[in-house]
Design a protein that fits this description.
With about 230 residues, the chain is of the alpha/beta class. It contains 9 helices and 12 strands. The protein folds into 2 domains: about 120 residues, Rossmann fold (3-Layer(aba) Sandwich), CATH 3.40.50.2300; about 90 residues, Winged helix-like DNA-binding domain superfamily/Winged helix DNA-binding domain (Arc Repressor Mutant, subunit A, Orthogonal Bundle), CATH 1.10.10.10. It comes from Sphingomonas populi.
Length: about 230
């Protein structure tokens, strides 16, 4: 069966960067739409939901971090939209802030268009359920549908990004097993993927924050890693 062409929204106030990335994404077999700021991006998303947003942080009118916050607080299809941040600030605090509010990855300017395309491809692959995959994962009050990429708590849908869903599914599929941060990175991104342990910690905090307080969703094993809680 032939896969549909991926549609990417490129949001940056620099037209040269937008054109450069649109060209590179097109060469990789994807379609690209451009927006000059966050407000224009909201209009574009309402008109046609992209498969992923490449999002500059520093922009006039509505910056990338605020746009990300609005999307994550929006309807489920917006809350789950994959986001790759672009920034001219190579600072670890900015990097963690970007991930904590719901970004899936982060690239620092100046960058290679090939690197951005590779990162986009890696994020999109996380949105494709692995084969074989269980039809459904049930653990306590938590249920996960890997085919529909839907998480539910007591039957109520919970909006998760692709990375958050895959992290939770990894833990819930093997209850009782403790995963180190390195092991989680390898399972979600592949061996050698360059992200920090703190990024995994940020994803875990994001997942916990989307479920009721006291849900006992993910347990921290000090000095070791994480495992699914009793739920």
């Amino acid at each position: 069966m032939q896969h549909m062409t991926r549609h990417i929204l490129v949001v940056d106030d620099d037209p040269h960067i937008r054109d450069l990335l649109s060209f590179a994404l097109g060469k990789a077999g994807m379609t690209a739409e451009e927006a000059a700021d966050g407000e224009a991006a909201l209009v574009a998303i309402a008109r046609r939901l992209p498969d992923l947003v490449v999002l500059d942080i520093t922009m006039p009118r509505l910056d990338g971090l605020e746009l990300c916050r609005r999307l994550r607080a929006g309807p489920p299809d917006h809350a789950a939209l994959p986001i790759l941040f672009l920034s001219s600030r190579d600072d670890e605090i900015d990097r963690i802030v970007g991930i904590e509010i719901g970004g899936d990855d982060y690239v620092v300017k100046p960058f290679s268009p090939r690197e951005v395309v590779a990162r986009v491809g890696a994020i999109l692959k996380r949105g494709v359920p692995p084969v074989p995959t269980p039809a459904r994962i049930a653990h306590g009050r938590l249920s996960l549908d890997p085919e529909g990429w839907e998480a539910r708590w007591d039957g109520t849908p919970v909006g998760l990004t692709a990375t958050e869903f895959e992290l939770l599914a990894l833990l819930a599929a093997m209850p009782g097993r403790v995963f180190s941060r390195d092991r989680i990175i390898d399972r979600l991104h592949g061996p050698g993927f360059a992200i920090t342990d703190r990024t995994i910690d940020s994803h875990v905090r994001n997942v916990r924050a989307k479920f009721p307080a006291g849900a006992d969703l993910i347990e921290t094993r000090a000095g070791i890693g994480y495992r699914i809680g009793g739920c």
